[in-house]
Amino acid sequence: xxxxxxxxxxxxxxxxxxxxxxxxxxxxxxxxxxxxxxxxxxxxxxxxxxxxxxxxxxxxxxxxxxxxxxxxxxxxxxxxxxxxxxxxxxxxxxxxxxxxxxxxxxxxxx
Length: 110
Known about the structure:
Yope Regulator, Chain: A, six-stranded antiparallel sheet, 3 helices, TfoX_N, Transcriptional regulator of competence genes, TfoX/Sxy family
């Protein structure tokens, strides 16, 4: 089952207070970014966040599941998805711990 655009829009709206949030279609599903850092995926109408120590402490009782077959387990966020304040804070503490994306080198055109 593919993710509905309405679900993606809802998630982005729920965490709009956690930075500049963008969802980008990737491999048939969606990557979700805050201030250019990818911090999670939306797959099959479910929200998955990259595991971080701060995120684990914030959530407490973490549920982990791979977002797609063969992927590493991520934090599956379901129970508090309607709580915009809680979800925004989780994204903020998680993104703080994630490294900045690597700058891609331009390929020479030989």
